[in-house]
Amino acid sequence: MPDFVDNEEAVDNELLKWWADQSFDNGFGQDKFEKGIEMYLQALDGSAPDLDAEAAKLGENADQRIESASMFATKFFPSETMPAIERMFETHEGIIAMEAIQEAMKDGSFAGDATPAAGLSEDSLKEMMQDPRYWSKNDPAFVRQVEAGFKKLYGS
């Protein structure tokens, strides 16, 4: 193996095994084998975002912003979605998007427009009031939706 390849990681790397087999089957010498690995690693390195540059775009408090977004994501999203969230955090835009989600959830605007759908009846509003999101007051957007429905029905 070339010096720039971590031997421990190379053991389980399917792509490296494939390249070694292809090189052997095609009679490539050590130089050509190493050149293929080097070209692949350069391509990978060129496609990865510059994390320091992305953090710099977030300003002086970048570390705190990233940590806050990460803690929120860990608490809010299921563990199986974390690889996608981590990829999102590779850019400053991803951190800004997560901050927008955090802010929307703080003020209850995450649910969007709380205006009730046309045709909402008193019975359906009373049914909504039985929902724990209404009576425990832990979903302000849902509470506003019920209140807006009564206002629309009864005009005040």
Short description:
With 156 residues, the protein is mostly helical. It is built from 10 helices and no strands. Helix 5 crosses helix 7 (92-107) and helix 8 runs antiparallel to helix 10.
Profile the largest sheet.
none
Give the strand content: under 5%
Cα-atom radius of gyration: 27 Å
The count of helical stretches stands at 10
Distance between the termini: 77 Å
Structural class: mainly alpha
Give an account of the 3D structure.
The chain has about 160 residues and is mainly α. The protein has 3 domains: about 5-45, no CATH class; about 60-105, no CATH class; about 115-155, no CATH class. It has 10 helices and no strands. It has helices at about 5-10, 15-25, 30-45, 50-55, 60-75, 80-90, 90-105, 120-130, 130-135, 140-155. The model is unreliable at about 110-115 (pLDDT under 50).
